[in-house]
Amino acid sequence: MSANATILRLPAARARTTTPRRTKNDVNPPRKTSESGRKLRLVTGVTKDKDGMATDYSVRLAPGAIARIKLSEVGPDQAWIDWVYVPPGWRDLGLGGQLMRRVLEDADRHGVRLSLEARACGGTDQAALERWYQGLGFVRSGRRGAFGPILVRPVARARAA
Question: CA-CA distances (angstroms) from residue 3 to 6, 104, 124?
Answer without folding.
Answer: 9, 85, 70
